[in-house]
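A quick word before the example. In earlier lectures we treated sequence and structure as two separate objects. From today on, think of them as two lines of the same record. Here is Amine oxidase written that way.
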Amino acid sequence: MRQVHLAVLLGFAAFTTALPSLSTPHSNNHRSTKNAKVLILGGGVAGVIAARTLHHKGIDDFLIVEARDELGGRMQNYTIGVPGKQYTVEVGPNWIQGTQTGNGTANPILTLARKHHVKNQYNDLDGSITTYDYNGLKDYRDLLNTSIDQFSQIGAIAGERVKMQQVDLSLQSAYGITGATPKNMYEAACQYYEVDWVREYAQSPDQNSWIASAWNNNFTFDTDMGGFSDENNLCIDQRGFKTIIQAEAAEFLLPQQVSLNSVVKTIAYSGDGVTVTLEDDTTLTADYMLCTFSLGVLQYGDIAFKPTLPSWKMEAIQSMVMATYTKIFLQFEERFWFDTEMAIYADMERGRYPIWQSLDHVKFFPGSGLVFVTVTGDFSLRIEGMQDSDVQEEVMEVLRAMYPNTTVPDPVAFHFKRWHADPLFRGSYSNWPPSFLPGHSENLRATVDKRLWFAGEATSLKYFGFLHGAYYEGLNAGEEIAKCVEGPVCTGRQHLNSVIDASPYPFVSITP
Ligand SMILES: Cc1cc2nc3c(=O)[nH]c(=O)nc-3n(C[C@H](O)[C@H](O)[C@H](O)COP(=O)(O)OP(=O)(O)OC[C@H]3O[C@@H](n4cnc5c(N)ncnc54)[C@H](O)[C@@H]3O)c2cc1C
Ligand SMILES: *[C@@H]1O[C@H](CO)[C@@H](O)[C@H](O)[C@H]1NC(C)=O
Ligand SMILES: *[C@@H]1O[C@H](CO)[C@@H](O)[C@H](O)[C@H]1NC(C)=O
Ligand SMILES: *[C@@H]1O[C@H](CO)[C@@H](O)[C@H](O)[C@H]1NC(C)=O
Ligand SMILES: *[C@@H]1O[C@H](CO)[C@@H](O)[C@H](O)[C@H]1NC(C)=O
Ligand SMILES: *[C@@H]1O[C@H](CO)[C@@H](O)[C@H](O)[C@H]1NC(C)=O
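And the structure line, produced from the sequence above:
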């Protein structure tokens, strides 16, 4: 029998234990000849919430298989700073996006933060802002207001287009049609702020679906459409944002229900069940498998499926996009920059070190000397290919341009994480391109042979990209899989054999 290392959920201690094996009697239902009834691949938000859901349904015969040495997935912090001045910052998700309005529906991530006393703070993204260009301070905040109005107008028109059953187009087309295409670098910087950054698409307007961007925004931020609120809270808890998921797991998860440091290589499936093989050749068998790996991991082909996934599933996986969002942290001896929460820098090149956030602010970490700049999309990939020192040099050139009359010193600490290069993620989160259709989304979350289940932020129709998207997808998958485990009937999730056009292309029927 193989021994697999199990580190612990909250990092209290590490120990070794055996995986459930042929001889291990299982607590629920009848004795199984498999390692578990359900294998949950991935211990991020979706995986942990799926496990919790099974547990609530009385099903404890599951095993979470996770490559890293802790739970939380993309929820990852980093300790930055010189000795005596160190802070926990978030290299992954940082905001609870959409909070709660009155006693309306709360974002479940906010509910977890409240429950586990994870500190978060309202972040005024649109109101507390300073604007710059290459020659220093330059007030174009009126253009930001215009940009905000343009985005909501574009969202409203998207709603009309849906009603009229008009085809989806890109946000680029939407800006063109409404006469809102940026005409200069300031308008471009404000459009970047709205589209690529604040709405978190992490890609440029030509790479975004018009309709899906509008509803993704509505379902999270617009209370008329069932959204939570239009506010964003920044997590500043020094235990790390991941505490919400690790503390939640600690309430119900037993050590033998998690296998950390376990990298999945192969997933074999048949009518009989599923066999998962790890990097060290350990095999795990189960009746059902829930895969919560990032879309990027599935796209890249890190996991071999045997037999290969059906074409409708492959098409869905390869048609959504994994975008990249990069936060570059800097610490200085002392703050010399803006006293607002946010700043925009307009450059001749759209997306070149454009969004600045001050953590050395009374609401966050006053006196920390911390500031960070965010880049996204293709620019993220560009800097991932560069050395840290070269990126730092570019960032400093921009900062010195923003402060022509200040002697800007070099930073005392500098850090960014390369999300696209990380084989466990291969990007930061999914984004919906204009060529992706609702049928593709249905196929992304559909089951294969009622054995393979899929969940994670990318499978969420309404909240793709967000933590709460991962949460709701984990919840739903847990509920559906529980029905299958309980039996007698397992319906699985439906798929479309092919996603087709509403009206055929005329030339296709012309025979030569
Ligand atoms: C930089 C950044 C900023 C973000 N900002 C926000 C934000 O402010 N607000 C917000 O709501 N969302 C934000 N997000 C998105 C949010 O992080 C995700 O939506 C969410 O964490 C996804 O959870 P998940 O469970 O679907 O996937 P994951 O967290 O990716 O979980 C999947 C797990 O599978 C594991 N895994 C992968 N491959 C293997 C393998 N071969 N074998 C074993 N295990 C494997 C991974 O280690 C991981 O733990 C951000 C993401 C990033 C990266
Ligand atoms: C994340 O934060 C915790 C708590 O402050 C810390 O112990 C841990 O080292 C941090 N992780 C990294 C990678 O810095
Ligand atoms: C929510 O608030 C409204 C108005 O404040 C109140 O009328 C209603 O009873 C509340 N609902 C719940 C479930 O508390
Ligand atoms: C920098 O100083 C020059 C000369 O004193 C002044 O004209 C300019 O406005 C200053 N620029 C900024 C951004 O403060
Ligand atoms: C932008 O809009 C906000 C909120 O409506 C308003 O308070 C602010 O004065 C506006 N700013 C500019 C420069 O027009
Ligand atoms: C988004 O919300 C706005 C305002 O509530 C609404 O007019 C529009 O139809 C919605 N768009 C979509 C695509 O749901």
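Notice the following. Confidence is low (pLDDT under 50) at residues 1-31. We will return to this example when we discuss secondary structure assignment.
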